[in-house]
Structure to design on (322 residues):
């Protein structure tokens, strides 16, 4: 290959569009010929300069909207006629550009897609109501797991104290809410301590009370506005769960004490926090 | 399309609905013009 041939192929070579054999020949020539090597450097520099310094404009959104509006008009006005040549060209031109793929689709497909998305939104917004029992079941599983873990792993309390004035400040410092902490020794449920836990996607306060040889984990976290105030009881794997909501907090008590005793515990707790 | 989007001759040809050879010749012409323009500008600056 002579220098003249190389010069004529330089553009295509720089663009990486040549077949491998010719490319190799040019590479070989560039190694040997200083003049062509220089021309190659100049070409590459020009290419880089173009991509770096030539302003790059994205089509404004208004243009896109205008194109869509006119396309829509075309389709609405002449549903039976074939799309005029200009528009057809516009659509086919748009297709290869990945960002515009959505807009290159026929309108009936877009309509179908919109309907599917809308249906999905409606379904997912009504899902929490439909799923209420399931989410409670899931939460119950988490509560029991947390209760069991607290008993088995020697991690019942983070702060072991029967003094509510020790436990409460400790929890307050770790959480972004001030959980009510009361000692119920007088009612036969002495406070053992407090612990941090994570349930239902919240950090929660866990208060540990004792009933003879049994432990009660009372989980508390702020109630979401509009939460159902209905009391709930559940029994699973031999554990009893009691749920209630007061003005500020969600409570879940978990224990292996009887359901009746949990109800007594709840009443005592509510009586104790009421005056505060 | 070549320099900003990094598209190949074939891709440009498909989008513009022209043969790849035309893409190549138009690019060559554009570059020649650019070279000429830059040369005169640099010449003037000197």
């Amino acid at each position: 290959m002579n220098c003249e041939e190389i010069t004529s192929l330089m553009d295509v070579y720089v663009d990486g569009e040549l077949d491998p054999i010719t490319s190799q020949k040019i590479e070989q020539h560039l190694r040997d010929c200083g003049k062509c090597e220089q021309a190659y450097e100049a070409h590459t520099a020009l290419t880089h300069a173009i991509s770096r310094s030539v302003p790059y404009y994205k089509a404004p959104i208004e243009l896109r909207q205008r194109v869509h509006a006119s396309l829509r008009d075309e389709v609405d006005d002449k549903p039976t006629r074939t799309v005029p040549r200009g528009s057809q060209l516009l659509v086919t031109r748009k297709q290869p550009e990945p960002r515009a793929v959505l807009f290159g689709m026929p309108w009936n497909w877009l309509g179908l897609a919109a309907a599917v998305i809308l249906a999905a939104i409606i379904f997912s917004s009504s899902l929490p109501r439909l799923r209420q029992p399931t989410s409670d079941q899931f939460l119950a599983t988490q509560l029991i797991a947390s209760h069991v873990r607290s008993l088995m792993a020697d991690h019942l309390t983070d702060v072991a104290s029967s003094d509510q004035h020790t436990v409460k400040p400790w929890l307050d410092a770790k959480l972004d809410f001030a959980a009510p902490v009361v000692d119920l020794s007088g009612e036969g449920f002495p406070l053992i301590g407090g612990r941090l836990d994570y349930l239902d996607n919240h950090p929660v306060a866990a208060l540990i009370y004792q009933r003879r040889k049994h432990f009660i984990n009372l989980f508390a976290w702020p109630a979401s506005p509009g939460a159902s105030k209905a009391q709930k009881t559940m029994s699973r794997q031999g554990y009893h769960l009691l749920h209630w909501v007061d003005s500020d907090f969600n409570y879940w008590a978990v224990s292996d004490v009887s359901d009746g005793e949990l109800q007594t515990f709840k009443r005592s707790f509510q009586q104790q926090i009421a005056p505060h | 399309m070549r320099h900003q989007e990094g598209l190949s001759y074939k891709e440009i040809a498909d989008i513009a609905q022209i043969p790849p050879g035309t893409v190549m010749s138009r690019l060559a012409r554009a570059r020649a013009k650019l070279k000429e323009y830059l040369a005169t500008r640099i010449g003037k600056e000197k």
Notes: Chain A has a mean pLDDT of 81. Residues 107-130 of chain A form the longest helix (24 residues).
